[in-house]
Amino acid sequence: MRVGEIDRILEERSDPEYKEFNSRIVPYEGKMYGVRMPALRSIAKDVIKGDWRLFLEEDTGSFEQSMIRALVIATAEMDADERLERMAGFVPEIDNWAVCDTFCGAFRTGPGNASEKLWHMCVELLDTGEEFPMRAGAVMMLDHFLDDRHIDEVIRLMCTVRSPGYYYDMGAAWTLSCCYISYPEKTEDAMFSICASNEILRMTVRKIRDSFRVSAADKERLKERFKGFKARS
């Protein structure tokens, strides 16, 4: 399936109301059709059935094409090294949170040492100083590395890496809030002892308080602890 054919399908499935809604929440300066996620997943599956490598060689000219590209790279059948290589080429192209988070959530890590190669790539992304590649590193950790082996380093990185901007802050806070749900004591200790960004800390506390998986008592305690932390800082 070629880009021109996909554009025709996107045009047919476009929803003006959804386009208006999506354009308000996704910062994207290029063309946006307004096609919902289930349809994009279906199109990506059709691309994968054909010569998906040829599709990836073509330029994408819309938000939806970028989403499809993300899904193809994340899920098409290929060996782990090729997927990581394609990830390395794709991540610098990411310029909005929706493509970033879709890509990270769908990404197939692969067996054996492929997971550790992905981990090291995520750590390297956090060192780029670039907002969306850094968000990709954070969200990929959220989706694939909240486990006993990696949790201490995930928490440390989310608390100490210097932020380049709002969308990284939100990704780091989202990751930390999920760390808290699975590892509450060590996450809270780090949040209030080594977190270098008051903004990330504030967002993390807010996300934890929005969660249905945290007790009302813990939410209130975190709220009060953050108030006290702000007063001292």
Automatic annotation (TrEMBL):
It comes from the Archaea. Gene3D superfamilies: 1.25.10.90. Transmembrane segments: none annotated. CDD domains: AlkD_like. InterPro entries: ARM-type_fold, DNA_alkylation. This is DNA alkylation repair enzyme.
